[in-house]
Specification:
heterodimer; A: alpha/beta; five-stranded parallel beta sheet; 13 helices; B: mainly alpha; two-stranded antiparallel ribbon; 11 helices; globular; Urea ABC transporter, permease protein UrtB (chain B)
Chain lengths: 428, 294
C-alpha cells in the first residue's frame, strides 16, 4: 500500500467504527460520571471576609436549595429536594425562623460540579440567600467549597462522605467515616467475622473507605482477603465474585455505587453465596435502591447508615407520615433525605440560638445545637461542623425495607480526620 | 485449577453476553453499514418488555420464556420504525446515521425514564434458573448457562436464516452488490426493512436475557453499546463468524486480564490489545470479499 492512494474501504470502516466507539464511550462515561467522586484532600481554610447582601428586614428570609434535578444524579437528589421542601413547609407552618417565613429559591445543579459552583455563586450573590442546602457528590461539594469560603456563606451538605474535610462554611449533616464505615466493621467484628473481602467502585470514596478499613482490620485482627475495584457502571461481576468466592471470605464490605450493585448482587446469589454464610455490608444502598436490585437478590444483606424508614421513634413516625402524605405511600424515606430534612432544622436551631442570620453569629452559636431528628437526637460539633449521629446496621427484609439489627450506644461524636483512633494515624 | 475453569467459564459467559449484544449489530452495522447508536436502546426495550410481561404473567419462568419472542418483536418493530422513518433516507451516509440514531437513543432513554421512572426496576428470575450447576467442582450459575445457550441458539438460527432461506439469500445479495441485486429483481427496500427488523429483534432478545444479569434501567443500552461495536469491528464487517470469534475472544481476554489484574486495568488492557490488533488487521478477524462496498 502506498501512502497516497485513497483510503481503502476497510480503513474508512475502521474510522467510522472508531468514531462510533468514541461517541459510545463518551456516552458511557457521561452515564457513569454522576457518582460520588472526589479527592481526599481537604482541610480547613480560613474564612475570608465577604460582604453579605442577605435581606433581614422583611417578613421573609431567603434560603437556597441546590440539588440536581436533571442529569444522572437527579434520581437521588430529587428525593433530597423533596424532603427539604417538606421541612421548609413545616417550619413555615410553625411560624418560620425568628418570626420570618422561609422563602425558598430552588436551583438545579444538573449533576455537574461546575454548575453547582455557578449556582451557589448565584444564590449567594444575586439571590442573597442566608444559607444553601444541598449537594450530593463529593465533587459537587468540592466545587462549591471555595465559593462558600470566598463569599463567607453557609452550605448544609446532607450526604455521607469520605471524611477528611472540615470547612467553617460547610455543615456536614450526613455521616463521616467514623459514623458509618467503622460501625460497619465493628459489627462484623462483633459477629466473629475475621476474613473480609472489599469490593468497591473505582473512584475515591471506596478507595478512601478501604484505606480506613485496611487500617482498622490490621488493628483488630481481621484479615482483608481481597480488595477489588470495578469501573463505575461495570456490569459483569463474574470474575470479581469468583475471586471473592475463592478468597475464603466470611464477610464482604461493599462500596459499589449505582447500577453495579444490581449486577453484583445478582451474580452473588447466582454462585450460591448467601447472606447467612457470607453477609455483605453495603454503604451506598438505601431504601429506594432495594427494589431495583430485586429484593430476592439482596434479602438478608446488611447496610450501614444513620437512619432507616423503620427506626422506631415518635419523631420518625411523624416524619414518615408527613413525607408519605405529601409525596405518596409508595415513596420510602432514606438516610440522605433524613439528613437533609434535619439540616434545615439544625440551621433553624442555630439561627434561633444566635438570634441572627449572620454567618459569623451562626458559626459562633453552632456548637451544641441539637435537634430531635427522625434518626434520634443529633448535636452539632462546633469544631468540625459535623454532627453527632447514631449509627445503625440494618438488615434488608423481604418487604424491601431495612430494619435495624444493631445500633451504637447513643450518638457517635463526628471525627472526620479519625484523630481519635490510634490505628488511623497517618491515614490523612 | 478450579479457579482456572471458573475463569474460563466466566470468559465464555461474558463472551456470550457480548455476542448477544453484538449479533444484531453484526447485521445492521456489519451488513448494511448503518451505525445504529440506538441498538443499545432496543436492548433496553427488550428488558422493559420482560419487566412489563411479568405483570401479566406472574410465573417468572413462563414470563421469561414468553418475553423472549415478545422482546424480539418489540425490538424488531422499533427497529423497523426507525428504518422506515429515518434510516431509509440515509443509506450510504453512515456518519449521518450515527448522529441521527444517537439522537434517537437519547429520546428513547428519556421515554423510558418518563414511562418507567428513573430508578432501576427488577425482573424476577425464574426458580429453575436460580443457583448453580456443579461441574468438576465448579459452580456454573444457571443464568449464565442459559444465556450461553441462548446466544448459541440465536447464532445458529441467524446463520440458518442467512444461508438457507430466500430472505437470507436476498440479504446476502444486497450486501454484496446492491445494484446488481436490484437488477436481478430483489427488492432491496424490503430486504433492508426485514434485515433491520431481524437485527433489532435480536437486540430485544439480548435485552430480555440481560435482565438475568444486570440492572434494568433507562441507561441499560449505554452499558453495552461500546462493547457491541467493538465486537463487530474486531470481528470484521459483514461476517457473523467474525462476530462469534471476536465476542468469545474478547470475553476470554477480559476474564483473563481481570483475574490477573483488576477490573479497571483489564478494560484498559483490552482496549490496548484491540487497538494493536486493528493496526495489524484493520479489516478485522474475518472480512467479506466484495467489490461493491466501495
Amino acid at each position: 500500500m502506498t501512502a497516497h492512494t485513497s483510503p481503502t474501504w476497510a480503513a474508512r470502516w475502521r474510522a467510522l467504527a472508531l468514531s462510533a466507539t468514541a461517541v459510545g464511550t463518551a456516552l458511557a462515561l457521561s452515564a457513569c460520571g454522576g457518582a460520588r467522586t472526589a479527592d481526599a484532600a481537604g482541610g480547613t481554610a480560613a474564612a475570608s471576609g465577604g460582604t453579605s447582601c442577605v435581606e433581614t428586614d422583611g417578613d421573609t428570609i431567603k434560603i437556597g436549595f441546590l440539588n440536581s434535578l436533571s442529569g444522572t444524579m437527579a434520581i437521588s437528589e430529587q428525593t433530597v429536594r423533596d424532603s427539604l421542601d417538606l421541612a421548609a413547609e413545616e417550619i413555615n407552618e410553625a411560624g418560620g425562623v425568628l418570626g420570618k417565613q422561609l422563602e425558598v429559591v430552588g436551583e438545579d445543579g444538573a449533576s455537574e460540579p461546575t454548575v453547582f459552583a455557578e449556582k451557589a455563586e448565584k444564590l449567594i450573590s444575586s439571590d442573597c440567600v442566608a444559607a444553601v442546602f444541598g449537594g450530593w457528590t463529593s465533587s459537587s461539594r468540592k466545587a462549591m467549597l471555595p465559593v462558600f469560603e470566598s463569599k463567607n456563606s453557609l452550605l448544609f451538605y446532607p450526604v455521607q462522605y469520605e471524611g477528611l474535610e472540615a470547612s467553617p462554611n460547610i455543615f456536614y449533616t450526613g455521616a463521616t467515616t467514623n459514623q458509618q464505615i467503622i460501625p460497619g466493621m465493628d459489627y462484623l467484628k462483633e459477629q466473629g467475622k475475621t476474613k473480609v473481602f472489599l469490593v468497591g467502585s473505582d473512584y475515591v470514596f471506596p478507595r478512601t473507605a478501604n484505606k480506613i478499613i485496611n487500617a482498622y482490620a490490621e488493628a483488630n485482627g481481621i484479615e482483608i482477603v481481597g480488595e477489588e475495584y470495578a469501573p463505575l457502571g461495570h456490569t459483569d461481576f463474574a470474575t470479581i465474585v469468583n475471586k471473592l468466592k475463592s478468597s475464603g471470605a466470611d464477610a464482604v464490605f461493599n462500596t459499589l455505587n449505582g447500577d453495579s450493585n444490581v449486577a453484583f448482587f445478582k451474580e452473588y446469589k447466582n454462585v450460591g453465596l448467601t447472606a447467612d454464610a457470607v453477609p455483605v455490608v453495603s454503604v451506598s444502598i438505601a431504601e429506594e435502591e432495594v427494589g431495583g436490585i430485586g429484593v430476592d437478590n439482596i434479602v438478608g444483606q446488611l447496610t450501614a447508615w444513620n437512619y432507616y424508614q423503620t427506626v422506631e421513634s415518635p419523631t420518625n413516625e411523624e416524619f414518615v407520615a408527613a413525607f408519605k402524605a405529601k409525596y405518596g405511600d409508595d415513596r420510602p424515606t432514606s438516610d440522605p433525605m433524613e439528613a437533609a430534612y434535619t439540616s434545615l432544622y439544625l440551621w433553624k436551631g442555630m439561627v434561633e440560638k444566635a438570634e441572627s442570620f449572620a454567618v459569623a453569629d451562626i458559626q459562633e452559636a453552632a456548637d451544641g445545637v441539637s435537634f430531635d431528628a427522625p434518626e434520634g437526637t443529633v448535636t452539632v460539633n462546633g469544631d468540625n461542623h459535623h454532627i453527632a449521629k447514631t449509627a445503625y446496621i440494618g438488615k434488608i427484609d423481604a418487604d424491601g425495607l431495612i430494619y435495624p439489627v444493631w445500633e451504637s450506644d447513643g450518638p457517635i461524636e463526628p471525627d472526620p480526620f479519625l484523630e481519635g483512633y490510634d490505628w488511623a494515624e497517618g491515614l490523612s | 485449577m478450579d479457579a482456572l475453569f471458573s475463569q474460563l467459564f466466566a470468559g465464555l459467559s461474558l463472551g456470550s453476553v457480548l455476542l448477544l449484544a453484538a449479533l444484531g449489530l453484526a447485521l445492521t452495522f456489519g451488513q448494511m453499514g448503518v451505525i445504529n447508536m440506538a441498538h443499545g436502546e432496543f436492548m433496553m426495550a427488550g428488558a422493559y418488555t420482560a419487566f412489563v410481561l411479568q405483570w401479566f404473567v406472574p410465573d417468572a419462568g413462563v414470563s421469561l420464556l414468553v418475553a423472549l419472542p415478545v422482546g424480539f418483536v418489540v425490538g424488531g418493530l422499533l427497529g423497523l420504525l426507525l428504518e422506515v422513518t429515518l434510516i431509509s433516507r440515509m443509506y450510504r451516509r453512515p456518519l449521518d446515521t450515527l448522529l441521527v440514531t444517537f439522537g434517537v437513543a437519547l429520546v428513547l432513554q428519556q421515554l423510558a425514564r418518563d414511562v418507567f421512572g428513573a430508578p432501576n426496576v427488577d425482573v424476577r428470575a425464574p426458580a429453575w434458573l436460580s443457583g448453580a450447576v456443579q461441574v468438576l467442582g465448579m459452580n456454573l450459575p444457571k443464568t449464565r448457562l442459559f444465556i450461553l445457550a441462548l446466544a448459541i441458539v440465536c447464532v445458529l438460527a441467524l446463520s440458518l436464516v442467512l444461508k438457507l432461506t430466500p430472505l437470507g439469500r436476498r440479504i446476502r445479495a444486497t450486501v454484496q452488490n446492491r445494484d446488481l441485486a436490484e437488477t436481478s429483481g430483489v427488492s432491496t427496500r424490503a430486504t433492508d426493512r426485514l434485515t433491520f427488523f431481524v437485527g433489532s429483534g435480536i437486540a430485544g432478545v439480548a435485552g430480555v436475557a440481560l435482565t438475568l444479569l444486570g440492572s434494568i434501567g433507562p441507561t441499560l443500552g449505554t452499558n453495552y453499546i461500546v462493547d457491541a461495536f467493538l465486537v463487530v469491528v474486531v470481528g470484521g464487517i459483514g461476517q457473523l463468524k467474525g462476530a462469534v470469534i471476536a465476542a468469545f475472544s474478547l470475553g476470554l481476554l477480559q476474564a483473563t486480564f481481570e483475574y490477573s489484574t483488576t477490573a479497571s486495568l483489564a478494560k484498559v488492557l483490552l482496549f490496548v490489545v484491540i487497538v494493536a490488533f486493528l493496526q495489524v488487521r484493520p479489516q478485522g478477524l474475518v472480512a467479506v470479499r466484495t467489490r461493491s462496498l466501495a
